[in-house]
Design a protein that fits this description.
Two copies of one chain form a homodimer. By secondary structure, chain A is α/β, with parallel strands linked by helices. Chain A is about 40% helix and about 15% strand. Chain A has a seven-stranded mixed sheet, with helices on both faces. In chain A, strands 7-6-8-9-10-12 form a six-stranded mixed sheet, with helices on both faces. The interface between A and B is large, with 58 and 58 residues. Strand 2 of chain A pairs antiparallel with strand 2 (about 105-110) of chain B. Chain A binds a DNA duplex through helix 2 and helix 4.
DNA sequence: GACGCGATTCAAAACGTTTAGGTCAACTCA
DNA sequence: TGAGTTGACCTAAACGTTTTGAATCGCGTC
């Protein structure tokens, strides 16, 4: 049939643009123009080229394109651990938003270790991702990494946790508010000695949740008892230990700063033969489908996980696109979902709350 | 200080190898040799180069390296939905293994849609990933995609689900065995009318679980009642609907083929005012930390999720490395974890079972 | 002094694109 | 007619690496 081309592309090797050019007897430029349908290409040439593309099953090599365009259409995303059920939805939100704008996600886990985080970032920078979505591990970057980030001039957007030394762009939940509402609800349901199982206070959102907790206590004129505050690490095991420590002091209310620690706590509760909500009221953070099966049904503060990811990705892509506006700190509103674990089904529907403040609070900070 | 270089790299732009070469007054080759510590570079030159690298904060551009080496050190991974709690651990396993060998993971969600899967694969191919880890959506690839895959000659490894038209390399769990054991356990605990909530039978593992179910019934001489078998789609909602349909026929045992559908089922159970294990025994697939909080404690068949991901990644990387040995189908053993949901705490410790077959079954198929 | 021979270093091609800066013919308009 | 203007198409440089084949050097050998 057709044995026209002098140097046919080898089998097991993708056709390149020059293969297509040779096959259709035009210049590389013309093929490129057809592929990106730029400038006007004559109808017959265009058809010849399209024919060749189909015949050779040609797809542009995005690596080469990245090299010349200095854009990879890839964003790096670093989360502490994709296995923590909080993050899949955030990642999914980011992926959905990224996908929609032609970006892909390179995923890394830091295990909340600064060292792993640094090597991940270095790798991502070497791979020339266009931007990075980061849920920062506790701790400060090394000077050389910081220097490199500055030189590369690549945008970061922080997710869930702030870290102003790196960038002011962040999409977080209003943790202060969420914790405040959680504790207020405990107070409203009659609890007076309220304990807290906190995340690592070096992490910004744990600190915020702690602040919200303090604020609510103060406002409700409840005592702050240091014995009733335990710092965990957001993992199950720490919730379990914290639970044992805390419950020995017999609080009548507990606010737990994340889901994993709640699981640990409930295990401790079980071991100690206590009952919720009879012995103590409980409000937890993050909501999940399987919570419907827990008994008692847990009252939780839900964070808009998907939205956290998608808005972060959208902001990042804007930055990549050259929007150098003021730094944006976007705080998304949490939602108190009242169920049974405080034993007091006061009806504050989430619709009501949403209605009173329909927009997520967006704060644009002046550059200090 | 030093204003030596003629064309210093612009600010906001990473130093390139030629910047380093200029700075240290050597050729590009020498820098490359130092960076990859290949061939012998004289001590003084080497030091000059290293000095310049540090000064300019140089890191090689992996895009350029990829272009010339025709390797990206990146593997694409396509899962149905990272939000399905089954997958994060699999992805994590893959990421850990990949990381260890210097590979990164480009993550895509297919939502079990063939169309999304195809566009994801096309994108990954264009990005020249070195290989793809795929949990196949139901359905057949289009001929053009299949052609392209063949031409590109890029290795695939299937995860959790087989699809022999694409490749025989797969890492899956022994679903037949898992389902078989689940149903046998139901039978042993005295259940006679056992129902099944199945995944989509077009998906290989759902089919296998169905087969295991049938086998156990047969072996235990239990009736197969079509009314007691409902096909879901592995999502919560379908488990809920299936639960309603199924429970109206009053089975005394149910085996559910995945966790999400179990959650749906339990919601239906609750609505119908039934009790487990009094009214029916239950065995579910997949185990999770939060199951410790469910009451009754669920008896489940746990799949080695992390291992599924890591072994798949390792196999894939072997293929990338040029190992063209016989196709490998690796079946990992599931583990029956007996708890309370069958109301019969017959003690078959998982240690015992593991002891009898210490190696995961590895089957090397002859090329047909 | 010519030769050979490692060891070290270099210049240039290659990877597959995009794109700036051309060429060339056809058309427009005075 | 001829200068100008368009439109279609092309050539070649560039992106930042790796790698091949060649150049240079020091030095011992005959």
């Amino acid at each position: 049939m057709s044995s026209k081309q002098a140097k046919p592309q080898k089998p097991g090797k993708a056709a390149s643009i020059s293969d297509v050019a040779r096959e259709s007897g035009v210049s590389i430029f013309t093929v490129s123009a057809v592929v990106n349908n730029k400038s006007h290409v004559g109808k017959n040439l265009r058809e010849r080229v399209e024919e060749a593309i189909r015949k050779l099953n040609y797809r542009p090599n995005l690596i080469a394109r990245s090299l010349i365009k200095q854009k990879t259409q890839t964003i790096g995303m670093i989360v502490p651990d994709i296995v923590n059920p909080f993050f899949p939805m955030v990642v999914r939100g980011a992926e959905d938003a990224a996908q929609k704008q032609g970006y892909n996600l390179l995923l890394c886990n830091s295990d909340d270790s600064l060292a792993k985080e640094e090597t991940a970032i270095e790798l991502l920078l070497s791979k020339r991702v266009d931007g990075i979505l980061l849920t920062k591990a506790a701790g400060e970057f090394s000077p050389s990494l910081r220097q490199m980030i500055k030189e590369m001039n690549i945008p970061f957007v922080l997710v869930m946790r702030t870290y102003p030394q790196l960038t002011k762009d962040a999409v977080i939940s209003d943790d202060y508010q969420g914790a405040y509402e959680a504790v207020c609800h405990l107070a409203r349901s009659g609890r007076r000695r309220i304990g807290l199982i906190s995340g690592p206070l070096k992490i910004s959102n744990a600190k915020e949740r702690w602040r919200g907790f303090r604020k609510a206590l103060e406002e409700k004129k409840l005592p702050y008892e240091p014995d009733l505050v335990v710092e965990g690490d957001y993992r199950i095991e720490s919730g379990f230990r914290a639970g044992h420590a805390l419950l020995s002091h017999r609080p009548d209310g507990i606010y737990v700063a994340n889901h994993l620690m709640t699981i640990g706590l409930l295990k401790a509760v079980d071991e100690m033969g206590l009952k919720c909500p009879e012995d103590f009221g409980l409000v937890s953070f993050d909501d999940y489908p399987w919570l419907g099966v827990f008994r008692p049904r847990l009252t939780t503060v839900e964070l808009p996980k998907h939205q956290l990811g998608s808005e972060a990705a959208e902001l990042l892509i804007q930055r990549i696109g050259g929007n150098h506006g003021k730094p944006v700190l976007k705080k998304l509103l949490p939602e108190l979902r009242i169920r049974e674990s405080c034993g007091f089904a006061q009806f504050v529907s989430s619709e009501q709350r949403r209605a009173s403040s329909p927009e997520p609070s967006t704060v644009s900070l002046a550059n200090p």
